[in-house]
Amino acid sequence: MTPSLSSKVRSSLCEKEVSFSAYEAPELVDVLEQRESVAFKDGVVSESVLRLCAAYGAKDSGDARQALDLLLESGDLARERGDDSITDEHVREARKRLQTEQVVEGIRNYSYHGQLTLWALAMVEQDQNEPVRTRDIYQPYETVCEKEGQEPVSNRAVREYLSELETLGIVSSTEVNRGLDGGVYKEHSLNQPVSAVKAGLSEFVDTSE
After folding, report:
1. Residue 54, Cα to own-chain centre: how many angstroms?
2. Which of 118, 141, 149, 162 sees the fewest Cβ atoms within 10 Å?
3. Quick one: the chain helix, strand, coil %, rounded to 5?
4. Residues ≥6 apart with Cβ < 8 Å to 50
5. What is the tally of helices (H) and strands (E) in the chain?
C-alpha cells in the first residue's frame, strides 16, 4: 500500500478550476469522504484523519479545496516516511508545511524590505501575542535592517509595505478608533502562525535570533 497519488489523479482532484462554497466541518467530512475513495486505497485514511482535515479546513476558511489539499499533503507525508496509513500527526505536520508554503509563495517575488517588514511584525507579534500597532513595528524593522546590513526605508514606506502584505493575504490589518483621546490607528496581525512565517522567510532573510 502507498498513500501517494499519481500526478493524473492529483491533477483531477486539485488542479481543475472548481468553485467551492464555504462549508462547516461536518459537510467537509462528507466532501472528503467522496474524494478519499478515489485518491487512496481502503484502510489508508481513518475517520479521525478525515475529521481533523475537515476541522482545520472549517477553521481556516471553510474551503473544501483547502481541506482536500491538506488530506493530499498528509498522504504525501505518510508516503515519504514509508507509513502504510495516514495519522493525525501526519495531518498536523502537513498543515504546518502548507502554511509555510503559502508564506513562501506569497513573498517569493516581493520587495526585500517588504520581507524585512514582515519579519519585524512577526518578531513583535511573537513577543506580545496580540495585534501590533503600526508605530510599534518600525523600530524592530530598523533592528532587522541593521542585522541584514541594510539601510532602513522611511516609516511611510513601512506602512505601505504593511498595506501590501494585507493585500497579499499574509497580514490582517484593522483600523481602531479610540476617539479624541486615543485617536485612530491600525493594528496588524499575521494570518499564519509565527513559526510558518519564520520558516517561509528563512528562504530569503536571516531569521535567526
Report:
1. 16
2. 149
3. 65, 10, 30
4. 29, 32, 33, 36, 71
5. 10, 3
* Residue-wise pLDDT tens digits, 145-169: 999 999 999 999 999 999 999 988 8
In a domain, residue 113? The reply is yes
Residue 16 lies in a domain: yes
Whether residue 155 sits in one domain with residue 191: yes
- Whether residue 172 is found in the same domain as residue 91: no
Query: 106 and 170 in contact (C-beta within 8 Å)?
Result: yes
Q: What's the CATH code of the domain at 64?
A: 1.10.8.60
- pLDDT tens string 8-47: 344 444 444 444 456 788 888 998 998 888 888 888 999 9
Q: Which residues contact 82 (CB under 8 A, 6 or more apart)?
A: none
pTM for the structure as a whole:
0.67
Question: What are the strands, taking DSSP E only, across the chain?
Answer: 132-133, 171-177, 184-190
Look at the chain and report how many structural domains it folds into: 2
